[in-house]
Amino acid sequence: MARRKTAPEAPARRELILAEAASLFARKGVAATTVREIADAVDIQAGSLYHWFESKEEMVDELLTGAMDDLSSWYQEAVEAETEPLPRLRGLVHAAFKVIAAHPDACTVYLRDYAYLATLPRFAHLNEASLRVRSLWIDTLEAGIAAGDFRADLAPDLVYRYLTYPLWLSVGWHQSSGHSLEQLEEQFLGLVLDGVTPRTAVVPAAAGRTPAKSAGKGKNSTGKNSTATKSTGTKSTSAPRSAGTRRKAAGTPAD
Question: Dihedrals φ, ψ of 153, to 5°?
Answer without folding.
Answer: -90, 5
